[in-house]
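Fill-in record for ESIP1 protein.
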Amino acid sequence: VGPYVLVTPNETRRKWLQQVAKKELADLEQWKKEHRPGPIKLVPQRLGGNESEAQVRQNQQMILMQSKYQKKHKREEYVKAKKAAEEVEILKKKAIQREKAERLEVKKRQEEMQRREVFLEDQKYKTNELLNRLDVSLPKSDSCQIANPGPESTAWKRSHAYQQALREDENRRLEEMRQEQQRKAELLEFKQKQEEETRTRALKNEQRSCLPSLFIFYCTLRVNNAFLDRLQNKTQPNNIYHPGYTG
């Protein structure tokens, strides 16, 4: 431990501080006594009990019923809000699907237009090729041909030959379709005949299988009727003319 200095306490200052503290405490107690609240003076009045017990019970019942209805109303409102949200979601999904369908339709139209353009180009190419082939196949010299045919006559011949080829192609396709329809009709008629023959054979077999049982039943019925007739003829005279018969 290092060196230190011991300071003696000042007794005079200590006494003065103690006196000041005692004086402040005394002043505080005096202030509390002077500012102590006085007695409370209230006008007497009736507290509660303005309604009877039946009315209180009825009010409680009404409040309970109202709370039930309020809960029910809140529940219904929640269900309606939920349904509305679901409908909105469904409408959004439908709108999205509709947009997708429209985009798909536009895409299909574009593809169809492209295919049509390609088809027209191919058709134009085929037409030119056919016209060139027809032009090559035409005879160079003819007795009925004009010495110097003009460009109009050559174009007319080409168009006429092209239309003739189109008509022949159309007729050929119509003939093929007619033959195909005829084959289908013949095949359908053949199938109907087969089905009719199958039904006829099944009906005949069923009738043949039923004939023995019907014959046996008919014979049994005839034997029973004959037996009953004989029995009735034997017993009827005795019953009618017997003495003491009462009918």
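KEY FINDING: The first helix runs from residue 11 to 34.
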